[in-house]
Amino acid sequence: MQINLDEAKKILLYIINNNKRLQDSGQFPVSVSLCGGAGVGKTSMIDNLAKELDYNYVKLNLSQISDPSDLVGWPCKEHYACKGEECAWISSELINEYIKNGWTISEETRMGYAVPMWLKQLDPTKGSIVNLDDFSRCTPAIAQAVMEIICRQEYISWKLPKYTTLVMTENPDNGDFNVSSMDEALASRYMKFDIKFDVQSWARWAENSKIDGRVINFLLSYPEVMKENEQHRHPVNARNYVMFGNTISGIDDWEQPSNLAFIQQIASGAFLDDKDNIIGTLFTTFIANKLDKLVTPEDMLLKPWSTVKTQIKNCVYDDNGNYRPDVASVLHTRLLNYSLYYFEQKGAKTEVVKHRLVELSDAPDEVNARGEKIGCMLFSEDFLFDIIRTLMKKFPARTNKFMLNKKIRNKVM
User: Fold this and answer.
1) How far separated are the first and last CA of the chain, in Å rounded?
2) Phi, psi (rounded to 5 degrees) for 208
3) Distances, alpha carbon 408 to alpha carbons 88, 299, 348, in Å
4) In a designed cystine with 154, which of 76, 159, 190, 316 is the match (CB 3.0 to 4.6 A)?
5) Would the pTM of this model clear 0.70, i.e. be above it?
C-alpha cells in the first residue's frame, strides 16, 4: 500500500507522540522508514515536522559515511569511576577532572565509543528526530551500526536523548536506483511506509516554499508528466522538476518564441530520460492556453473584489464564454494552499479570508432590473466546499466564526 506525503506526516506525528508514551512506560520507541522516489519531499516533510514540534532535527546522509566511526564515534578506553553511590564510565581524558571533583577511579576498564559530534548537537531538554537519509545506499558496516541504534537507541557506551525518534529515508529497490536491499534481520526492526508522489501534496509544499507560480500551474495542469513510461521509469520526478522550474523562473516572458525555445533546450538537460519530449510539447500547449498568466493566489485572496473577480472570470472562461473546469481546479488549489500559507503568517487576518469566501460564494453577484442574479459562476460548489472545509479543519480556532455567516454555513451544511 502506498500513501502520500500528507498521510505519511499524519502517521509519523502519531508515532512520535506514541514513542513518548512508550518511553515513559519503559519501552523502546518505534523507528520508521519512508521509502519513495527522488524528490517526493520525504526529508523536507520530516524537517518541517520537527520545526512544528520544536524538536531537535539532525540529518545524516548515510551514503556519504564510509567509516562507522563517523556515525557511532571513535573507540576509546573508559574507566569505571564512583563518587559515593553514584558511578559512571568515563573516558581517559576526563580522569583528572573527575578526581578533582572527589571521584574514585577503579582499575576496571572497557572499550567504549566517544559520543559522536552530531549527537552533541541535540538539546536533551527537547524531543529529537534523527533522519538517517539514503538508508538503502549505506554500506553493510554502516547498516549493522544502524541496526544496533534502532534496537536500543544506544551504541555500546552512549545513548540517544529521551524522546528521540529515528526516521530513515530511502529510495525503492525497483531498478531505478542504485540501492541495496535490507535483510530481514534489519528490516523487521522498523516500520516501513511506501511514499507515492501526490500532486496536491506537492502543490502545498511548493506554495509554502515560494516556488514560481507558473511552475506550480504547469504541474497542476499536467500531473500526468509524473507517471512512469512504458519502460516503467519516471523521466520526470519531483526533484528534477523543481530544479527545472527554479532554473526557468528567471525568464520573465515564457510566451516569447525565443524564450519558449530556450526553455525547451533547458528541459532537455533537466529530463534526460524524456526521449519523447513530453515536457517540451506540453509547455507549448501550456503557453498557448495562457496558463502561465493565471491570476495569482495572493491576488485572489487580497486584491479588491471588484478587480479580482474580473481576473478570475477571464481565467475560467475562454473567448467563447465556455467554462473551463480544469483551469478553475488549478485556481481553487492555488487559492486553498495560499490561504493555508497566509493563516500561518504573523499578522494574518481571519476576516480577510472570510470576506473573500463570502464574495466567492456570492458569485455571480450581478443583479438585473428584476433583482435576479446574473453573471458567471467562478468556482463550483465542490471547490468552495473544499476550501472552507479544509481551512476549518486545519485552523478550527481561527475559523470557528465562519459558521456564523449564513452564506458560508450554507456551503458546508
Assistant:
1) 33
2) -65, -30
3) 64, 21, 20
4) 159
5) yes
Residue burial 291-300, b: 16+ Cβ < 10 Å; e: rest: bbebbbbebb
Q: Are strands 56-61 and 128-133 parallel, antiparallel or unpaired?
A: parallel
Q: Is 343 exposed, middle or buried (0-12, 13-18, 19+ CB in 10 A)?
A: middle
**Tell me: the pLDDT tens digits for 196-250?**
889 999 999 999 999 999 999 999 999 988 876 655 566 788 888 999 999 999 9
- Grid coordinates standing for 357? 469566501
* Tens digit of each residue's pLDDT (9 = 90 or more) over 9-18: 999 999 999 9
Question: 316 CB contacts (<8 Å, ≥6 apart)?
Answer: 323, 324, 327, 328, 331, 378, 379
Rounded Cα gap, residues 236 and 225, in angstroms: 6
CA separation (Å) from 29 to 11, 58, 68, 104, 194?
14, 18, 23, 35, 21
Calpha distance 238→4 (Å, rounded): 13
- Residue 61 and residue 398: Cα distance in Å, rounded? 39
| Strand blocks (E) in 187-261 | 191-195
Of 174, 170, 210, which Cα lies nearest the Cα of 186?
Answer: 170
d(CA 400, CA 392): 7
Cβ neighbour number for residue 12 with a 10 Å cutoff: 20
Could you give the CA distance from residue 390 to residue 289 in angstroms, rounded to a whole number? 29
- Residue 406: Cβ-neighbour burial (10 angstroms; 0-12, 13-18, 19+): exposed
DSSP conformation letters of 335-359: HHHHHHHHHTSTT--HHHHHHHHHH
Return the C-alpha cell found at 134.
539514503
**CA quadruple 378, 383, 386, 387: dihedral positive or negative?**
negative
C-alpha cell at 91: 573516558
